[in-house]
């Protein structure tokens, strides 16, 4: 077979590769349908209904999302904290003075 492939032109090789890729994808799709049918059949045999969704869900991206501010310094509105991560210095200082965290809740 390698002798036959070596004799092909670039165009013929590209066409062969494209055809082989399409055929491989069709075989994989057919196999997937067979397996899903088997799973549903097995589930039905014990009285269970299954829903199988094809394709993968992409995880929700948190990139660029903003978290709302939960705490703000009443004396300086620029000082704000979302409640995530370490407490900012301004808040830690006020808590050490005896203030309650709820006093700064927005």
Automatic annotation (TrEMBL):
Its main location: cytoplasm. Residues 56-84 are annotated as: Disordered. Pfam families: Histone_HNS. Residues 61-106 form the DNA-binding protein H-NS-like C-terminal domain. GO terms for molecular function: DNA binding. The keyword DNA-binding applies. Gene3D superfamilies: Histone-like protein H-NS, C-terminal domain. Keywords: Cytoplasm, DNA-binding. Signal peptide: none annotated. The keyword Cytoplasm applies. It is found in: Cytoplasm, Nucleoid. Belongs to the histone-like protein H-NS family. PANTHER family: DNA-BINDING PROTEIN STPA (PTHR38097:SF2), PTHR38097. This is DNA-binding protein H-NS.
